[in-house]
Amino acid sequence: MSIEKLAKQVEGLTFEAIADKYPNCHPEINPFDLYRAHLANVLSGITGVDSSIIYPNLAWTLSLDKGDLTLAAPALRIKGKKPDQLAELAKEWAEMFPDNDPLVAKPIVVNYFLSFYIRGAPLIQSLIPAIRESGAEYGRNKYLGLKDPKDPSKGQKRIIVEFSSPNIAKPFHAGHLRSTIIGGFIANLYEGAGWDVVRINYLGDWGKQYGLLALAFEKYGDEEALKKDPINHLFQLYVRINSEMTAEKEDIEKRKAAGEDTTELEKNSLDEQARGYFKKMTDRDEAALAQWKRFRDLSITRYKDTYARLNIHFDDYSGESQVSEDEMDKIGKEMEEKGICKEDKGAMLVNFQELIPGKEGKRLEKPIVRKKDGTALYLTRDISELLNRHEKYHFDKMIYVVASAQDLHLKQLFKIIELLGHKDIADKCQHINFGLVLGMSTRKGTVKFLDDILKDVADKMHETMRKNDDKYSQVADPEATADTLGISSVMVQDMSGKRINNYTFNMDAMTSFEGDTGPYLQYAHARVSSIRRKAGLSDEEIASADLSLLIEPHAVNIVRLLAQWPDTVQNTLKTLEPTTVLTYLFKMTHALSSSYDQLQVVGSERELMKARMALYDAAHTVLGNGMRLIGLSPVER
Ligand code: ARG
């Protein structure tokens, strides 16, 4: 417990005392918790304000030159003071701050803001060993997911993250790509925070179109092709039968217009046959179900391979097909009894406008939950599925990672659950939405499948790598590296902005080694790894380094950033924005790259070499932890 060394610098500052005093305070894993607690204690003595008010108001700064923590005097709610009086007060407080505080320098005052700068030496000497000890654990916080933080025996909270959710036999579009990337990240984030995470993929795998697909397979299916590449084969069949169906419909329309009797044609149309086939499926006809299950299973097997390349796995492949008709009937009746839905021209619909007065009701529109012919809809399935998941998993929280195009759908869903009398369950659900990807196409045309995107980006990456012969020859398996870098390119580009923003899929920009890109991040990681290889120091040598030799401002700044990592992760749990993590990682890589000339390892005197190596090793750990959190596989070369 190396961070404890820091606490020992201050009399009376113990982990136990502050953990009890401040909420969610875990100084043994988050150094900033210690600094906040210490500052709150000291400032309370100076200002007379209760430390519990000061603690949560010690805020982050945007960059290190603004300090490590800042406090705005108005946040302390001192009555009857105008802004200029508060600025005066801030100045007085700063003067009263002890010169010889062991952890933090005397604050700098700008207007009514106090900026605090952490002292370098004690932080360096405690944090570098702490990161060494924690390794992959540094940044994780198992307490946050406990049902009762004071009593771990009560167990973890459970969260369901539903994401990716593509549709079988249809293209894997940008919405699915983003859901996969963002969802994988959110699942990792909660896992790191000690939650029990269940990852669910809710496939689009039910409906009349799957009856049509089965017909297409009967007509043109090829066993070999299905086994070899189910996703592509099913897609091709689907495209083919759909165009046939469209042609047929047009033909019927034409004949009708010419006064011909088309009853017989319509009865035998593909559309009717598909309806019939799907009816067999809903009636649980064994042969029909078995065929459909084969399509589904083969597709899932293939999806799994692709997800594995993105370091993603699912605990459950659920899907629209898994929702039982009986249950939907039951809930339909319940909705009717409770006056939530009403008949309208033979269909059942939820008239939110009547149920909820005002703007909210209007905005929720009038979704149908049962068609005239008795079939259930996307929304109907979601209602049943949600309640089922609650039964099955007793979740404390559930997140749906779905494009913002479905904002209304999810609002309707949560509202219906609430109207059914399950406000408690609705309150546990959250929709995490995201914007569009514009112009997503590969060089071979529009994107159809995730594999195509990854393949194309990997090819492009390979080209870029080839441009540097010297470095290219050092990479052991260029194909595999190009693949990893390609995946990083796509993921980093996706996570660079706020989720809700649209972005343009730009193959050249994302695969560049310049700018804040995936390849640059990988390069930065590989570069710290290479220092370690070149230095040729043993673990013991690095562990026993004399860290008091690290006095340069560059070294101090790197460690100040390293100290922010656990807090960054904790903050990301509030924003659920991958960009919060990425921004941090790029700050880190920039600090590293500007330090290399100042803090040389190879070529320095032995003791200095060890100390600097220990610093870079800690940075390597944190970069790697961050990259893995967002779903990347850090490369060493
Ligand atoms: N398969 C759907 C689509 O492609 C996404 C599913 C989202 N999840 C849900 N529970 N409705 O649009």
From TrEMBL:
Species, as recorded: Apodospora peruviana
SUPFAM superfamilies in the cross-refs: Anticodon-binding domain of a subclass of class I aminoacyl-tRNA synthetases, Arginyl-tRNA synthetase (ArgRS), N-terminal 'additional' domain, Nucleotidylyl transferase
InterPro entries (alphabetical): aa-tRNA-synth_I_CS, Arg-tRNA-ligase, Arg-tRNA-synth_N, Arg-tRNA-synth_N_sf, ArgRS_core, DALR_anticod-bd, Rossmann-like_a/b/a_fold, tRNAsynth_Ia_anticodon-bd
Protein's recorded name: arginine--tRNA ligase
Reactions catalysed, as given in the entry: tRNA(Arg) + L-arginine + ATP = L-arginyl-tRNA(Arg) + AMP + diphosphate
Keyword Hydrolase attributed: no
UniProt keyword list: Aminoacyl-tRNA synthetase, ATP-binding, Ligase, Nucleotide-binding, Protein biosynthesis
Top-level taxon of origin: Eukaryota
UniProt lineage: Eukaryota, Fungi, Dikarya, Ascomycota, Pezizomycotina
One GO CC term, this protein: mitochondrion
EC number(s) given by UniProt: 6.1.1.19
PROSITE patterns registered for this protein in UniProt: AA_TRNA_LIGASE_I
Name of a matching Pfam family: DALR_1
Record's keyword annotation contains Aminoacyl-tRNA synthetase: yes
Top EC group: ligase
Gene Ontology MF terms in the entry: arginine-tRNA ligase activity; ATP binding
Limits of the DALR anticodon binding domain: 521-637
Family (UniProt): Belongs to the class-I aminoacyl-tRNA synthetase family.
Residues in Arginyl tRNA synthetase N-terminal domain copies: 33-118
UniProt GO BP: arginyl-tRNA aminoacylation; mitochondrial translation
